Amino acid sequence: MNCTLILLRSLSLALLAAVALLALQVPLEKLSFYVLSTEPEVAALAREYFISGSGLLQRPSVSILCWAGSSACKMPKHRC
Questions:
Q1: Cβ proximity of 73 and 66 under 8 Å
Q2: Domain-wise residue ranges, the chain
Q3: Which of 16, 24, 45, 78 is packed most tightly, with the most Cβ within 10 A?
Q4: What's the pTM value of the predicted model, to 2 decimals?
Q5: From CA 53, how far away is CA 31, in angstroms rounded?
Q6: How close are the terminal C-alpha atoms of the chain, in Å?
Q7: Over 11-59, what HEC string results?
């Protein structure tokens, strides 16, 4: 029973951290571009790079398709 409580506590903490990161994803992106004082063109290219699946801001559906063991993604313009 003690192991179950520890597991539930760990899983709930991981879920809370994941939700917090997803919720803060866009504000952190905007803050980092502001702090680095990037030009709009550079910010647009960086945003496109990260959203395309090459960085941290991957769309969950794309990363799940690739993680599931498929040899090639079913989405155009994206390589696993």
A1: yes
A2: 38-80
A3: 78
A4: 0.49
A5: 21
A6: 40
A7: HHHHHHHHHHHHHCHHHHHHHHHHHCCCCHHHHHHHHHHHHHHHCCCCC
Structure tokens at 18: 């994941």
Q: Report how far Cα 71 is from the mean position of its chain's Cα atoms.
A: 21
How far is C-alpha 28 from the chain's CA centre?
12
Please give the angle made by the CA atoms of 72, 22 and 74, to the nearest 5 degrees: 15
pLDDT by residue (tens digit) across 5-63? 999 999 999 999 999 988 898 898 889 899 999 899 998 888 888 777 645 544 455 45
Cα torsion through 63, 64, 67, 73, rounded to 10: -70
Q: CA angle, corner 79, sides to 77 and 36, nearest 5?
A: 80
